[in-house]
Design goal:
This protein is 36% helix and 5% strand. It is mainly α. It has a two-stranded antiparallel ribbon.
């Protein structure tokens, strides 16, 4: 009976250790930023909007000054 109790205690201890390792991995796992989801996350300056006046939010979630195209040439 004592031998079964020791085995059971060992099994429970192993399960607890494995559980702590698995839970710890889930808690410390970093999430990657997703540009375009409307939420400004780590590494993003904007996400759709939120840039200062005169700047636009790019597809890479960075605030940049937009390029202004040159006007078309006048016919000669």
């Amino acid at each position: 009976m004592i031998m079964k109790s020791k085995h059971l205690s060992l099994i429970i201890l192993v399960l607890v250790i494995v559980g702590v390792i698995l839970i710890g991995g889930c808690i410390t796992q970093e999430t990657k930023s997703v540009c375009g989801n409307g939420v400004v996350e780590a590494g993003e300056e904007c996400d759709g909007d939120g840039c200062p006046a005169g700047k636009v939010c790019t597809e890479n979630c960075k605030c940049e000054t937009p390029e202004i195209p040159s006007p078309p040439a006048l016919p000669e």
